[in-house]
Specification:
Helix content of chain B: 25-40%
Strand order of the largest sheet of chain B: 6-7-8-4-9-10
Distance between the termini of chain B: 30 Å
Structural class of chain B: alpha/beta
Number of domains of chain A: 1
Order of helices and strands of chain A: HHHHHHHHHHHHH
Radius of gyration of chain B: 19 Å
Number of helices of chain A: 13
Strand content of chain B: 25-35%
CATH architecture of chain B: 3-Layer(aba) Sandwich
Number of strands of chain B: 10
Largest sheet of chain B: 6 strands, mixed
CATH class of chain B: Alpha Beta
Number of helices of chain B: 6
Largest sheet of chain A: none
CATH superfamily of chain B: P-loop containing nucleotide triphosphate hydrolases
Shape of chain B: globular
Helix content of chain A: over 70%
Number of strands of chain A: 0
Number of domains of chain B: 1
Strand content of chain A: under 5%
Order of helices and strands of chain B: EEEEHEEHHHEHEHEE
Distance between the termini of chain A: 25 Å
CATH topology of chain B: Rossmann fold
Oligomer: heterodimer
Chain lengths: 263, 246
């Protein structure tokens, strides 16, 4: 077991020493996706704002709940789109990197960090849009917002572990690319991204309490919406993050040398 | 002292039966090698008891039919595959050319691609900067160096890949078949650089089906068949003594 963890740590530390490689490749990825477009990566901002605008326009509740709905949806979509993108791209990560894996001695974690950075850069454009919507839609800046920043940092910290777990899942079980994609599309409706949970009974109650994504959303959203530190959501998220990292280290340590024979 | 020593190296990997919803006959992982076992416990014996020793100045040609284990052996030497048996002892800085396109991005310029290729090979930014003009000059790409890589012909891409891979004076250079794809003048130029490398007490290992390329570049020939060494001989044109031909 110790040898497995040492192997994973060795792979990660080598990848960290090669940070110039994944930073350069991630920037190239972003540049390539928007090359020859007029707005370039600003399209990411436009897409995000268009989504938030559509959800607010269609689903905004009447009455007193209406006030903070734009902020609620803006934060919900920011976190959900980020998690959705990370997971859906992760399941095919090793297959996409096949030529690199078969032709170089780069540690596997380089590819994990390449995707993590790429997703973070894309999320950065959405964050700019989210901040603008928050400033325009009412809630005034207060010190509890710092907890939201801490929540975002926690999500960033667990991202490489999530990518690793889903990348191994996709390598061993190729059909998971489609299963995960479909589950994520459906999952948006079972996660309080755009619907508000006010203690009602029924499906929404279970979808709120038993959905792990709820807690990732709430550690960012509650400090801004309610002005409080969401201790329960942070505790659940930290426990899930540690568990994800444990699984990621086990997979990386145990199977990193086998991946080349599997993809 | 630059050297390569393989002692009874074997590579066996399990054919992972992927969890998939597709029909059973589509579950096999990858082709090549000798498949042993049956049912759920199938293994590929890709290399079996491979032993040889190379010293400074040696230029080894790997030959054998498709699936004999040439590329697998190169990848074991480079460290991509971890051998499941035996020992690999390598002294010297290794660089490899397996695939022209690795590290090259279609949309990026040749100049930017040199930077990316250098970073992937573990060079520092200072080393990349220092070697940049040499690489461009050797590749003979001229003004094309500032055009996107996708505008390059296969030969231009090969020239850039070879120039970059050999720019930092590797002590051991591993190459797969592709170098035979370039035009005659490029091959001649590449051969001269390989000669220089070998004369500086380096080692070259080249896998190829091209008899002409093996004869013109290599001093030794290792014939592989089904993952096993069939023979290790001196090339007639270069040999110091007579060794049995395969």
């Amino acid at each position: 077991m110790i040898a497995v963890f040492n192997g994973a740590v060795d792979d990660i530390s080598k990848a960290m020493r090669l940070h110039r490689v994944w930073i350069a490749l991630a920037h190239e990825d972003i540049g390539d996706q928007h090359r020859r477009t007029t707005l370039g990566p600003l399209w990411l901002l436009v897409n995000y704002v268009a989504f938030v605008g559509t959800f607010v326009f269609v689903f905004q509740p009447a009455g007193k709940d209406a006030a903070g709905y734009a902020a609620y949806v803006a934060i919900g979509l920011l976190v959900w789109f980020y998690l959705m993108e990370v997971m859906s791209l992760s399941v095919s990560l090793f297959q996409r990197e096949e030529s690199f894996i078969e032709g170089t001695t780069l540690p596997l974690f380089v590819y994990v960090m390449r995707l993590a950075l790429q997703s973070s850069i894309r999320a950065g454009y959405a964050i700019a849009g989210c901040v603008a919507i928050l400033l325009l839609s009412g809630p005034s800046i207060a010190s509890p917002w710092l907890w939201s920043v801490a929540g975002l940092l926690l999500i960033l910290l667990v991202t490489p572990a999530m990518i690793t777990v889903f990348a191994f899942l996709g390598a061993f079980f190729p059909d998971s690319q489609f299963i995960v994609g479909n589950l994520l599309r459906v999952g948006m409706f079972f996660t309080p991204v755009f619907w508000v949970y006010n203690g009602q009974e029924g499906v929404q109650k279970y979808a709120y309490h038993w959905n792990p994504f709820t807690y990732f959303l709430e550690i960012v959203r509650l400090p801004i919406m309610k002005g409080e530190f969401p201790a329960h959501a942070f505790t659940v998220t930290i426990v899930m993050s540690l568990a994800t990292w444990m699984i990621a280290l086990l997979l990386l340590g145990r199977y990193r040398r086998q991946i080349i024979f599997i993809i | 002292m630059v050297s390569i020593k393989l002692d009874n190296v074997g590579l066996v990997y399990k054919l992972h039966e992927k969890l998939t919803l597709s029909a059973p006959d589509r579950r096999v992982g990858r082709p090549g090698g000798r498949i042993e076992g049956s049912g759920r416990k199938q293994f590929v014996q890709a290399l079996d008891g491979v032993s040889f020793e190379l010293k400074a100045g040696d230029r080894l040609g790997l030959v054998g039919p498709n699936g004999a284990g040439k590329t697998t052996l190169l990848k074991v030497l480079y460290g991509i595959y971890e051998p499941s048996a035996g020992n690999v002892a390598i002294e010297g800085k290794v660089d490899a050319l397996f695939n022209i396109n690795i590290g090259f991005r279609r949309e990026a310029t040749g100049r930017r691609n040199i930077v990316l290729r250098g970073l992937i090979s573990g060079w520092t930014e200072a080393e990349i900067e220092e070697k940049m003009e040499d690489i461009i000059a050797f590749s003979e790409l001229g003004d094309f160096i500032d055009l996107p890589f996708k505008a390059y012909s296969q030969g231009m891409a090969a020239r850039l890949a070879f120039s970059a891979a050999t720019a930092l004076d590797p002590e051991i250079l591993l190459m797969d078949e592709w170098i035979g794809a370039g035009d005659a003048s490029f091959q001649e130029k590449a051969k001269r650089r390989m000669d220089e490398l070998a004369e500086r007490a380096g080692i070259i290992v080249l896998a190829s089906h091209s008899e002409g390329l093996i004869q013109s570049v290599c001093t030794k020939r290792l014939t592989l068949r089904s993952g096993r060494v069939e023979s290790l001989t001196m090339e007639p044109a270069k040999r110091a003594g007579t060794v049995a031909r395969p």
